[in-house]
Amino acid sequence: MKEGAFPRKLMLAGILLVLNIAAHFMPFERAALAPDDYALLIRSQEESASFLNYASRPICYLFLRAQSIFVGDNAVYGFILLLASSAVLLIAVFLLLNELLRDEVSAFLAGAIFCLLPNTLEIYHTAIFANINLVFSVYVLCLLFYLKYLDSGKTRFLAVSIALYAAGIFWYEAGFFTPLIMLIAAFLKNGKKVLSWLLFLPLSFVYVIYRFTGAFGFDMRPGESRAASLAVIPFNLLELVRHYAGRYMARSVLYGLYKFRSIEMPWLFFMCVIGIAIVLFTVNLIKKLEPVKIRSDALILACAIFAFWLLPILLNGQGGVGGRHLVLPSIGLSVILLWLFGKIKKGRAVTAGVVMVILIAICQGNAWSQVVACRINASVYGYMKESSRALKVARFVVVDARSFAEKIPFTLVPQDFNVLNTYYGAQAFEGWGLKSMVKLAAHENAKEVYIAKTRPGLHAGKIEFDMPAYAGYRSEKSEHVSLDAGGCLVVDYDSVYGKGFMNGLRVR
């Protein structure tokens, strides 16, 4: 190891963590959990703690079950878990990049790119993504230890890598094709150990049989398993284009810049100061360096990381690509982008500084949208808990989502299926989340709850409205509902924000 390499590596890792916090977690607040978290709290109350309830991803189920037990509906604990998991992921990525690029400064630059990519922003939103961040860390470390094995020949590194792969595939299948990356790595780095990747295939085979047989026939929820399909690849490729060069990328960029100016003081000041300090540090670092040079073997391996860690979602039979699915491929993409950056002959430092300023602002604006979206959910849930007795005695509960959508600006492009489901791109209302909030607040899991996409009206003693019904990807239809007004309680904007709305908070 070069003299001073470890302290420098430690310093650069620390700066990456500060960048992560400044870009994604300031202000230090997520006032609510994710809609999925509230739904999981209900499920955990209704089921035994058997992984067979979630057989396709048993470790994922057990982790989320433990999260439900130890975090509960405490959003502060959820935020701490999210922040810690994000830090673990970023440090794991930095270590993998350092192993791949053989230079801590290049690893820092690629790590900064990874941290600031606009199409993976959802993983910084709510506690539900702690689970995702940690399993992605498992796959990153799995590949890292395999690369260390190729370099050193120490079998303990190979054993750790195999154990991590086993944990990863039974947790979340995003890294299923990691052995193919290892095959390419072995060819590039140590041909004598090229057959070592075969040791991972028995695990892959067992998992495939396990998945397609529904946990060998013991799966209690076989309908929830996600099947692979070749026919859906064209659709998912189109979704991928939208994430990297289409409307999803445009949404993240435009909403991030649009909401950046809305960030509350003094947080905006602190975020700008820290962001500018990191940009100046990075610019100064680049000025002192020769143009970044990425070895051909590292570039080939980066392309393999991008392709093979993207492949599972392309095969997802249900269709659709989320920002979380792009996290692992983004490691390879970060190296590719760093290689392209190295092709700039003049003005590299200035170019890097300008791009970093824009990307940090985009991330901070989206982080603010996530904060406000969580505040809205927290305000609704807080009102429900205050009204616990009324919710409990009501025969029906109707959450008038339309009233919130009419009073709260939340989008620049209205869509029929978006009734405050997102707040400037950040997940907000979801039907399952709102229903779960009511049940948790009422302490009655069997409570009949309806989500209204039109304003409820009173007609001949009946409360009438339309509720959304799923009609396909990014599409829904309406279902008319008529309920006895005498046994119905409506939760709407005025009941929650009767005294005023202030960036998602309730004016008291």
Structure description:
It is a single chain. The chain has helices at 5-24, 35-46, 58-71, 75-101, 104-116, 128-152, 155-169, 178-189, 201-212, 233-245, 247-260, 267-287, 296-314, 327-341, 348-386, 388-393, 401-407, 431-442, 493-496; strands at 396-400, 422-423, 426-427, 448-452, 457-459, 462-470, 476-484, 488-491, 501-502, 505-506. With 508 residues, it is mainly alpha-helical. The chain has a three-stranded parallel sheet with strand order 4-1-8. Strands 5-6-7 form a three-stranded antiparallel sheet, with no helix packed on it. It has a two-stranded antiparallel sheet with strand order 2-3. A hairpin with a 2-residue loop joins β5 (457-459) and β6. The radius of gyration is 24 Å and the shape is globular. The N and C termini lie far apart (59 Å). The mean pLDDT is 90.
Keywords:
3-stranded antiparallel beta sheet, mainly alpha, 19 helices, globular, 3-stranded parallel beta sheet, 508 residues
Give the SSE map.
Layout: H1 5-24, H2 35-46, H3 58-71, H4 75-101, H5 104-116, H6 128-152, H7 155-169, H8 178-189, H9 201-212, H10 233-245, H11 247-260, H12 267-287, H13 296-314, H14 327-341, H15 348-386, H16 388-393, E1 396-400, H17 401-407, E2 422-423, E3 426-427, H18 431-442, E4 448-452, E5 457-459, E6 462-470, E7 476-484, E8 488-491, H19 493-496, E9 501-502, E10 505-506
Parallel strand pairs: 1-4, 1-8
Antiparallel strand pairs: 2-3, 5-6, 6-7, 9-10
Helix pairs in contact: 1-4, 1-5, 1-12, 2-3, 2-18, 4-5, 4-6, 5-14, 6-7, 6-8, 8-13, 10-11, 11-15, 12-15, 13-14, 15-18
